[in-house]
Amino acid sequence: MIYSVKGTLIHIESGFAVVECGGIGYKVNTTLTTQRQLKLNSVVTLFTYMNVREDAVELFGFYSKGELSTFKMLISISGVGPKVALAILSELSSEQIALSVSAGDYKTLTRASGVGPKLAQRIVLELKDKIKGISTDGAEGIVTKGSVIADTGNIPKAVAALAVLGYSAADVTPVLSKLDPSLSVEQLISATLKQMG
């Protein structure tokens, strides 16, 4: 399995980029979000997922580990292949997907090409199942270095949304405990992901 590729970005086209590593150009399927972060002829690192099928071996690359984690979670859902997952992540950020799932808002997911209402509902349902153990009051009583995250504000919702992205409550609560609970869920998620790198 190829974990990441690092090299010179020699070509960008709609839906993919070519990264030259050791004289070999790797075609890496990417999202529009990732492509916006890339500059031609600069050294880039993409976190990758290798998809092996009977007729093809494809590499999917992402600028951030969070986007890769969301991609893996999406393709684990029945009916969501790599191309559909790329379309979703090109239309929505990982944070927006997490918010949509935690709010049960499947209509936002239908903005992505190839995602109809039934598939969007399945995505929301299956991803909610993955975070079933963390409800909106799931952060109540979590102790982090002398402070307790209160069951107030949007912090519990942010913990639930970050769980969709694959982050455990234990990982995110130390960061969230330092943030203002009156911030919006999206602002809390964004600030947490920035601080976690």
* SSE topology string: EEEHEEHHHHEEHHH
| CATH domain class of the largest domain | Mainly Alpha
Under CATH, the homologous superfamily of the largest domain reads 5' to 3' exonuclease, C-terminal subdomain
Percent of residues in beta strands?
15-25%
Outline, from the CA principal axes?
A: globular
Q: What name is given to the CATH topology of the largest domain?
A: DNA polymerase, domain 1
Sheet/helix structural class: alpha+beta
Blueprint of the fold:
Blueprint lengths: L3 E10 L2 E6 L2 E6 L2 H6 L5 E10 L4 E6 L2 H11 L6 H10 L2 H10 L13 H14 L12 E2 L2 E2 L6 H10 L4 H8 L8 H12 L1
Antiparallel strand pairs: 1-2, 1-4, 2-3, 4-5, 6-7
Write a structural description.
It is a single chain. By secondary structure, the chain is α+β, with helices and mostly antiparallel strands. The protein folds into three domains: 4-62, OB fold (Dihydrolipoamide Acetyltransferase, E2P); 65-130, DNA polymerase, domain 1; 143-196, no CATH class. 41% of the residues lie in helices and 21% in strands. Strands 3-2-1-4-5 form a five-stranded antiparallel sheet, with helices on one face. The protein has a two-stranded antiparallel ribbon with strand order 6-7. A hairpin with a 2-residue loop joins β1 and β2. It is globular. The two termini are 23 Å apart.
